[in-house]
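Q: Protein A?
A:
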Amino acid sequence: FFDCDGVRLMMGLPENPEFDHPSSIIYFKVQNLQLTYETLLKRGVNFVAEPHLVAPMPDHDLWMAFFKDPDNNFLALMSEIRK
């Protein structure tokens, strides 16, 4: 992770082949990941990964859920769960 004047930039290799694509993933930080996931799922959002722990940090756990927009681009919800 890099802090770019308040914007967090994460660089890394794709976890799975389906995430290996030519565009960037935009992450939306939400307070309640499970509630947001369930709401968007009911509205027809095409999730490709349920909420899951991505990285345990010293003071919080980073959780994410990945989905696709109508143009088939990857997007993600993210939430920092404080310990």
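Q: Protein B?
A:
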Amino acid sequence: MKVVVLEAFPRKTGYTQQCINDFLEGAAGKADIERIDLTSIDIHPCRGCFHCWTVTPGVCIQKDGMAQIIERYLTADIVVCVTPLYAYAVSSYLKIFQERTFPLLTPGVEFTVQGMDRNISRFPHRGPKKLAAVIVGGLKDHRLMKGAVESLRFYAEGFGMEFSGALVRPESFILQFSDTKPKTSKRIKDAFFRAGRMLVTDGVLSDELFENVSLPLASDNVAFARYSNVYWEYAEHEQDAQRVRYLTNRDVRILIYEMASGVDAVATKHITASFLFQFPDLNRVYSLLVRHGTCTIQERACPEPDLTITCNSESWSKVVCRETDPLKLLGKGEIRLEGDISLFRKLGRYFPPPKT
């Protein structure tokens, strides 16, 4: 079994790279895998001259890096196209590659089982018989990926390949915040690993894998926008990606919502309490309202809170991330309390580290 992986992403430290690495780790040792970096090879767009049909059948008039790729491509049983979502479509690197495979077709017309007309394959006994894809995008809505997926589906059909499906990973930049979504992040990583293994051993991908690689990381659109806005606020001023990740991951505007969504339903099953958090350095307040195992959050002060916690945002971020002991900060005066102080001692039980 020979698998050719067409890597059409220029950023080698990004989330597309992360996803395909997990996928190929699962496939390792189960097939002969060749990775082709389309971004590092000089390939020009198709000229539409039909020279490869009428003058030199099967051979493009352009003398660039495409000839070497075609030869390697024709040795594959399965091809995996890996692309970020650019302008709601596949990247230009992959699109140019697709255009330049035109010499693999002949002028004759035939019809697929579904009744779609297509040109006849020039080498029906050579080249991949199946095409799968990994598409990674930054936005949340799966519908934004539909155009890219469908273009690859039609490309596969048009070139006589079975479309094995596209593993779609939206919300890609939230993958870096795995410590706020540890369980979901692990399921996503495992799903890419198992998808790589299943494709090369069984030749198919299960519905479960398609679902798991796309698991939502943000609970809803508002939460996604919150992550995105905070992240890009830092990214505009910081060039170090790791520093941006660190700052976003410890931003209290993110963490306070993670606290609310991660409330322990068992520990808070029999309580009703309101917590007011005041962060003077941000000029922000948040109210967490716990009601019998659930928690809602408001970006305003609730009337007569049971406990008011006042501190700067950096100190509270360290508390939430379990980097410091809140009682020590309380003793040093970095945290000030008003109301039922006994509730403060139980906060770690009520709002444990993220488990989802």
